[in-house]
Structure formats: C-alpha cells, structure tokens
Amino acid sequence: MRPTIGVLALQGDFAEHLATLDRLGVAAREVRTARDLRSVDGLILPGGESTTIGRLLERFDLVEPIRARVQAGMPVWGTCAGLILLARDVDPETRARHQLVLGLIHAVVRRNAFGSQRESFECDLLVEPLGPPPIRAVFIRAPVVSAIGPTVEVLARLPDGTPVAVRQGNAIGTAFHPELTEDARFHAWFAALVECSSVGAA
Question: Which residue among 30, 177, 182, 195 is the active-site one?
Fold first, then answer.
C-alpha cells in the first residue's frame, strides 16, 4: 500500500499542501483528530498562526499523540508556523503569551523575524537535498532559526547566512512556504522520506 501523508487541518494553509500532494499523485488526507493521525505515515504542519494552531492542538488532544508518533520515527515537516511549533523554544523577545512548542527540533526560532505582512518577500534559495536549480521561497511574516543544537542540519540559508530550513532526523522545518509555488520538489522529497520510513517500519 502507498503511504499516506497527513496535513494538519485545524488552521492555516493546509489546502495548499493537499493540492500540491495531489498534483504529485501522493495519497494525502486532512488530520484533525488523534484517530486521523493514526491513519497516516507522515505529517505536515502548515503555515498559519502558531499560537492559534497550538491552542487547537491542545483542544483536540493532539499534542502528545504527535510527539509520540514523531519520536517513534514518523516524518514530520513544518512550514512557517509549523516550524515554530516543531522547535524546542521561541526567542523570548518574540514569544507569544500562550506559545506551544513540541520540542521536536533542537532549535530556537524567532517569530515574525522580518516584520509585518508588508515585509513579506520572495527569494531564490538553494536547498541542499534538492540540489540546483534554486527554489523560489515565499516568506510571509516568517520566522527564522536563531540557534541550533549540534544534531540539527541546516538545509538552506539566506544570503546573510541565517538558517531558514533545518532538519533533525525525521523532523524538518522551513521558514518559507513551498506550497505557494508551482515547484513541488520539496513535497516530492518529503514524500520520498515518508515512503522510505514506512517501508523500513513494515
């Protein structure tokens, strides 16, 4: 059976991730409950409002089930707000009052690192596992990674060296939104990781 990728569908741009996976022919489904989570082999945490998504994860009793699945080896990928949720901590200067973090990537992130919505931007980035050509990266009220632990791999940096894509084992975070472009290589790479993981667990 083909592996299925779940997309957390509580808030944010989950529909865009689902559409990209559909274009690739990857089996995907919305995840809103722990029962939904049990039926998928990988999970995407989409962009949106990180504190809102965190509150909804608590309300729907998904915090510990997600932690347990990822710690057991399930691949997870967080984009923008999803990166914030995966981090170990948020920079105290930008941490919201009710800021849930899952602690699955040994990194500190800085919320809204570039300012308000008006400071959103796009740029070309080389992402190590994808190789050339660069991808077009869309940053919308984006975070950045301000500190990383020794087991965290940096996958992409801004021209000034700031990390904007990181990986720790089966947990991946990007500050940008690959789902908002026509380039589906990042989704294809993540789908391949999920497939390898599900084959290894079979």
Answer: 177
Q: Which of 64, 80, 128, 196 is catalytic?
A: 80
CATH at 136: 3.40.50.880
CA dihedral sign of residues 129, 134, 140, 163: positive
Residue 136 tokens, joined? 């077009």
- Residue pair 29/39 in contact by the 8 Å Cβ criterion: yes
- State the total domains in the chain: 1
Q: What is d(CA 78, CA 46) in angstroms, rounded to the nearest whole number?
A: 6
d(CA 166, CA 162): 11
Concerning whether 177 is annotated as a catalytic residue, the answer is yes
pLDDT of residue 28 exceeding 70, the answer is yes
Q: In whole angstroms, give the CA distance from residue 11 to residue 48.
A: 6
Q: Is cis: bond before 65, omega within 30 of 0?
A: no
* Residue tagged active-site, from 128, 179, 182, 196: 179
Domain that holds residue 71: 5-201
Question: What is d(CA 73, CA 66) in angstroms, rounded to the nearest whole number?
Answer: 11
pLDDT at 113 over 90: no
Q: What is the mean pLDDT of the chain?
A: 94
Q: Where residue 2 falls among pLDDT bands split at 50, 70, 90? A: confident
Tell me the whole-structure pTM to 2 decimals: 0.95
